[in-house]
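Appendix C reproduces, verbatim, an entry submitted by the partner laboratory led by Prof. M.T., so that reviewers can inspect both the input and the predicted structure.
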Amino acid sequence: MSLQSNAKIDGRGVVVTGAGRGIGRALAVRMAAGGARVVVNDLDAANARAVADEIGGTAIPGDVTAPEALIDAATETLGRVDVFFANAGIDGAGGGDSLQTPDDAWDRVLDVNVMAHVRAARVLVPRWLSDGGGGRFVVTASAAGLLTMIGSAPYSVTKHAAVGFAEWLSVTYGGRGVDVHAICPQGVRTKMLEEAGPLQELLSRDSALEPEQVAEAAVAAIEEGRFLVLPHPEVAGYYAARAGDTDRWLAGMRRLQQKVDAAGGLG
């Protein structure tokens, strides 16, 4: 596993949430390959144990929306949590008119995609500042958090919020030893993409990546000290275009929405 060791990963105590499959699993595998000691978290205990067994890590299953118990158990296991991958997320699409998504569904998506990050940072950052060792907080957001996502309103809005929280965390604590990164891919070959329906083609227009490619992009950003992790490099151009002429960007997105509606319809 240490053959691909990386300076900012090797020997570190790492927690990856939502690591039972997809991007989370790829991150856990890549962290272990880089020499890290990894705690694998997932709501699915069997998947968490399988990945932990595969990489020689430790499985600590559980719900990320109440992360203090996870962080305490991981600290006991690792001695110190140096890197926290806040990777777990849900789409909350539910089908139908997304504007009519009920409040309880909104609450659940907000809880997992945003507040889980806030609660984890609320526990970790004071510990990192107190012992002077610093830390690294990595949020798996989405290109939807930079560009807006056709389809699920809860997903798009919460991914914007996840990026916003990561930016705030970097601004507020980056000068005090807390490094922050936001992973913002487009289409990735995961269960979420498989279940995207009419959106699958749109999300894959610049090619759908394997989760392992996302993990490699995350490692490169960590090594280079870059905040934004853009596994699809095209996203940087889209992001600049959106900022440069927002009305033109929105007009283009409305045209894409019409194509999606014609292909099967999403609210």
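The longest helix spans residues 103-131. Additional entries are available on request from the coordinating office.
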